[in-house]
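Figure caption, in words: inputs first, then the predicted bound structure.
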Amino acid sequence: MPVVVEPESQAGPEAELEARFQAVIDRKDRIEPRDWMPDAYRRTLVRQVAQHAHSEIIGMQPEGGWIGRAPSLRRKAILLAKVQDEAGHGLYLYSAAETLGVSRQELTEALISGRQKYSSIFNYPTLSYADMGTIGWLVDGAAICNQVPLCRTSFGPYGRAMIRICKEESFHQRQGYELLTTMMRGTDEQRAMVQESVDRFWWPSLMMFGPPDDESPNTAQSMAWGVKTHTNDELRQRFVDMSVPQAKALGVTLPDPDLVWNEERGAHDFGQPDWAEFWEVVKGNGPCNAQRVAHRKKAWDDGAWVREAALAFAAHDGGTGGAAEDADDTTGKATT
Ligand SMILES: [Fe+2]
Ligand SMILES: [Fe+2]
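Bound structure (fe (ii) ion present):
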C-alpha cells in the first residue's frame, strides 16, 4: 500500500513518512516498490542488490570455463545446469533492482566501468576440476549463510527473489559436496587435488562475509533498516561451525592452525583471513579482476545487436511483443 502524505502533521510530511516507514520495518513487514522510502535506503538497496546480481553473473565465469572440460557427460550436465541457475539468479536480482528505479543497462554499465562491485571470491582462478566441487561446497555454502537471512530482508522484491534463489543454492552446495566425496573415494592423486583446492578456497570463502564488524561502517544502519539481519562476523562464525564437521566427513583438512572448538563459547575459534589481500582484491587488484570484467564487457558489447533488434521489433509491432498477432490467428485465441 502506498503511504499517503498528511499535510497537517505537525512533525512535517518528511518526518511523518519516515516514522511510518520505520514502523513497517519494526513490525518486520515488507517495504514495497511504490511505498515511500528514504533516499539513503533506496541507494543502499540499489548498491546491495546490484552487487548481488553482478556476483551471480560474474560468478558464472570461473565455473563456465570448465563445462567443456568436464570429465563425463553426467558432470557436464550438472555443471551446465548449475551455471545456468546462476544466470537465472542474476536476472531475478536485476529485476528486483529495476523496481527501485534503475535499469539493467545502467547497472551493467556500472559493473563494466568498475563503479559497482561483485563478490571478491570470483576474482580467484579455478585451476582444477576439484574447484568445481569446492566452489559448490564452500562458495555456495557461504552464499547460503549470507542469503538465508536475506529471505526476511525488509525490501519485498529482494526478499522474495532470495527465497527462490536459496532453494537452488542448496542444490549447488550438495552437488559440490557430492563431487568432492566422489573424488575422495578415488585415487591418491584425486584426494590431493581436493585438498589443494580446499587450501586455496578456504580463506577467500571466509572473506565472502565482508570485513570484520568493527571495520564495517554500514552494518548498523543496514540492520536498523532490516536490510541486513546479522553482522558479518556472526555469519562467518556460522559458516565455520557448519563447515568443520563437513570437512571431517569428507576427510580434508581446513588450512587454519588456529581452528579449534571452544567449549565455553559453544563455537569454533578460528584465524583471520589476510584482510590486506581482501582489500587489494576489492580495489581491483585480485588475480582475475581485469579478466572477469573484460569478459563481461565483451559479452555485453557482442550482445548489442540483439538488444537493438529486440527494440526494433518492439517498435515495429507496437510493443505488443507479437501478442496482437497471436490473438488474430485462425482460432481467434491467444496461443499461450
Ligand atoms: Fe546463485
Ligand atoms: Fe549457486
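The beta strands are 260-262, 267-269.
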